[in-house]
Design goal:
four-stranded antiparallel beta sheet
């Protein structure tokens, strides 16, 4: 009788222990029921993910002194696989697990759902004995997707990226100041032009000696001849004598100048005779001129000069950011869940492997 009582008490103790462990490490019924109000499939996948993260967090905090770890760090340390939501999108890498004394908080954020749970954990695990409490199973189904989903956008960088099937690239261009530079410019210097008085002579008249004059050719006569000798010689006829020596005198031609309305012009040995007429009612006007280094522009003399100038120097910089994805060799949609998930099996998913989940 006593042995039977002991056996009954022992069995009751085991049942209470299992119930206590379940309450410690699994979401409460009220929490689960609340989640299932919306999308049962999404809630099931989310619960599976949050339990997976719970297991990984316990393993992490057991071997590390830090009090917080992100989902990204857990994946990189190979304590956890890449968590996917019900739409096969990766959960946010900034999701985290945080430890305070004997409590662990899991804050998991996915595209279709996000939530935070808190549970207790004993600091000392006797002799590090581990009991299998919950395991996850991989379910796969063939899909028509050729690629995985795009990753989050990277930070902007100057490193050039080329767009292809596995890399999506966005660019932006900004103008930035990079210093100063010397440039060469030109500018116009302008000064007043020089001015002088000019006669406005009628057609056929030309200005000469501040008078308007017109010449008409009359006829031509033979020019007069004269002979000249160098200094020290005496002219005699067409000869120049100096003592008993002589040379030919220099022969030249000249025209008469009477200044009485007639003008002569020597041409070889002839004199052209012109009748000169003056126009005495000439109109006076001003004319302008510039030095050779300037050009005349109205009443101004201008010239272009070149000068140096320090100005700000700018350049256009192109920045790149990118997303990556992978080609799917085996086109499988993967969901992690509990064993014998009938809903997934009914949707043509196959259970392919079990993840280790002892602690």
């Amino acid at each position: 009788m006593r042995n039977s009582t002991k056996i009954i008490l022992f069995n009751i103790l085991i049942i209470l222990t299992i119930i206590l462990i379940y309450l410690l490490f699994f979401p409460k019924k009220s929490y689960t029921e609340k989640l299932l109000e919306k999308n049962p499939e999404a809630e099931e996948v989310f619960n599976s993910n949050i339990n997976s993260m719970k297991i990984a967090a316990i393993n992490y905090f057991e071997n590390n002194e830090t009090e917080k770890v992100t989902l990204d760090e857990l994946i990189k340390k190979e304590l956890l696989f890449d968590l996917k939501d019900s739409n096969n999108n990766s959960c946010k890498k900034e999701s985290y697990a945080e430890k305070h004394n004997d409590k662990i908080t899991i804050d998991l954020k996915c595209e279709d759902k996000e939530d935070k749970i808190e549970f207790n954990i004993e600091n000392n695990i006797e002799n590090k004995k581990r009991k299998k409490l919950f395991c996850l199973y991989e379910y796969t189904k063939e899909t028509n997707k050729e690629y995985t989903d795009w990753s989050d956008w990277s930070e902007w960088t100057k490193d050039e990226k080329e767009k292809n099937d596995l890399t999506n690239v966005e660019t932006k261009t900004e103008t930035i100041e990079k210093g100063t530079k010397t440039v060469y410019n030109t500018k116009t210097i302008s000064i007043d032009a020089n001015k002088y008085v000019s006669l406005a002579c009628p057609n056929g008249y030309q200005e000469e000696d501040s008078r308007c004059k017109k010449k008409q050719e009359l006829n031509t006569i033979n020019a007069s001849i004269k002979y000249t000798c160098p200094n020290g010689y005496t002219k005699s006829g067409t000869k120049c004598y100096k003592g008993n020596n002589y040379i030919d005198a220099t022969k030249s031609y000249y025209c008469p100048q009477d200044g009485k309305g007639t003008e002569y012009k020597l041409s070889n040995d002839k004199c052209k005779i012109y009748n000169v007429i003056y126009y005495d009612t000439s109109i006076v006007e001003y004319k302008y001129y510039c030095d050779s280094s300037y050009y005349l522009d109205g009443t101004k003399c201008n010239k272009q000069i070149e000068y140096e100038e320090e100005v700000k120097d700018y350049e256009e910089v192109t920045y790149y950011r990118y997303q990556t994805r992978n080609k799917i060799d085996k086109k499988n949609d993967i969901i992690w869940s509990s064993k014998d998930n009938k809903d997934l099996l009914n949707k043509s998913y196959n259970m392919t492997r079990e993840i280790s989940c002892e602690f």
